[in-house]
Amino acid sequence: MMTYEAAKQLFDGAGLPLTESHFAQFQCYLAELTETNRHMNLTAITEPAEAWEKHFLDCAILLQKVQLPLGATCIDVGTGAGFPGMVLALLRPDLQVTLLDSLQKRIGFLEQTAAKLGLANVRCIHARAEDGAKLPELREQFDMATARAVAAMPVLTEYCLPFVKQGGVFAAMKGPSETAEQAETAAKLLGGEIVGEESYTLPTAGERKLIRIRKTAPTPQKYPRRSDKIKKQPLG
Ligand SMILES: C[S@@+](CC[C@H](N)C(=O)[O-])C[C@H]1O[C@@H](n2cnc3c(N)ncnc32)[C@H](O)[C@@H]1O
């Protein structure tokens, strides 16, 4: 059981505000996640204190690190149970958030959950990243693409950077061992430039890292390549 006071303290510790209405929405999200997780593999983390830290706080920190203008468009590639995208949409109703995943049943869960939470700023798309990024309505349309726990940097950059418009950013949520340098070749080939990496620490889960790549030129049409090619010959 998580109380509002405990959740607020957790967010305060990272310098993030948490209103009672956000708390109620997060609790509703967690209840949906826990219930659905009984019959669908969504996440290994449903214990309340752990979910609050490793899912909600971790994803909320992204908003603190990347300053998104009012009304910005974001895509979360390989969103799974909605991390980080659903958290962004919940905390920033002005953002237009697209949640993309290759598993239809997860997309069904996300559509139902966004409706339950009253989030009108969420769109859910069932597609592989490398197919979605070929669609004119998605290619180079986003101020920010993000992803957490989907693939290693060279592969992930090929999945994500094609979605970003020029001047926008790809922000990868990573563990401590991956580095921005690992994406340098991929970034160059895909029209990006490494901005840098920034570490932060979760209270009990330890170090996490945010790697940022800015989109400086259009992605050549031949990217992203076919799924098997991306995995067999990562750009690196
Ligand atoms: C380990 S889960 C991580 C989910 C979530 N981002 C998180 O941090 O909890 C990876 C997710 O990425 C999705 N995924 C993997 N490869 C993908 C691809 N090429 N295109 C779209 N989704 C993909 C999987 O279906 C899965 O839901």
Automatic annotation (TrEMBL):
Note whether Cell cycle occurs among the keywords: no
Here the segments flagged for biased composition (Basic and acidic residues) are 225-236
| Superkingdom | Bacteria
For the region Disordered, what residue ranges are annotated?
A: 213-236
What EC number(s) are associated with this protein in UniProt? Answer: 2.1.1.-
Where found?
A: Cytoplasm
GO CC, alphabetical: cytosol
* Binding-site list for S-adenosyl-L-methionine: G78, F83, A129, E130, R148
Enzyme class label: transferase
Q: What is its main location?
A: cytoplasm
Which keywords does this chain's UniProt record carry?
A: Cytoplasm, Methyltransferase, rRNA processing, S-adenosyl-L-methionine, Transferase
Q: Which GO terms describe its molecular function?
A: rRNA (guanine-N7-)-methyltransferase activity
Question: What is the stated purpose of this protein?
Answer: Specifically methylates the N7 position of a guanine in 16S rRNA.
Give the protein family. Answer: Belongs to the methyltransferase superfamily. RNA methyltransferase RsmG family.
Q: What is the protein name stated in its UniProt record? A: Ribosomal RNA small subunit methyltransferase G
